[in-house]
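REVIEWER CHECKLIST
Item 1: Sequence provided? yes
Item 2: Single chain? yes
Item 3: Sequence as submitted:
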Amino acid sequence: MSLDKNKLNKLLDFIDSIALDPGNQWFIDKLVAKYAPSFHSDPKDIMRIEKYLGLDYALDTWDSTANYSFVEDETLRNQLISDNREMLRYRFGTRSHRVDFFEVCRYALLQMELMLNYYFDRTCVDIEELKERIQGANPKLETSNWSSVDAIPFFAKLSTLVSEQKITPKLKNTVENIRKARNHQSHRGTDANIVDIEAYQQGLLSQGLRIAEDGDIDWKAAVANKDTNGTYTAIRQSPDYYKFKFSLFLEKQPFDKVIRAVSELSTILSNE
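Item 4: Structure as written out by the authors:
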């Protein structure tokens, strides 16, 4: 019996929406087990079905790109691995049919938040010791309302690691851009952290600075020239320059840099 094509397409759309939820993996497994055998004569048909459903069975069993063996809590470790795989699905477009930089950043940030919470919870005797460490790096922060590690702002925990020389300012800046990219999803068109890249670059050129191939200031040329060294030093500490750097980050969408940042943070924390 032949059914209406539009109705069948709606059914496929419904199955697709089910496949997006990791909690429905059991259903997808049963679906493949029931119908995949009929396509064994043509492996390309199986690949097309897997592509349509947004599945990548290699990713379902792929080792995490970040090392989470140091996490003793099995539930937390499994969650970190699950978020890592979901990040990779959006990197390669095997979930919901698209490569999505903002979703990669979202799942990267979820892993980082869990890692920082686990690290501080494990390395502090109690909440008071944790507050003391956080305030050491963020003296202006009000901590009296904090009752758990979850209540502490992410940026405060991140800056504490920099202050204690656990992570480099370079890694911190990458993580901050990932956090801003995550927030950018809900502020499309009204994000105050965005600047006009071309206009900002023209402003840099008008001050005698050069633009490097990556779109940023050619800092080597700026530092080597006594006429631009002071200008460069002042600019790189300005709020607008941080906005410019974030705007470049969004424009370039450095997927691999985001994924490496997650791995780098996990390696650092695993050694603490």
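Item 5: Key structural point noted by reviewer: The chain is about 65% helix and 0% strand.
Item 6: Recommendation: ____
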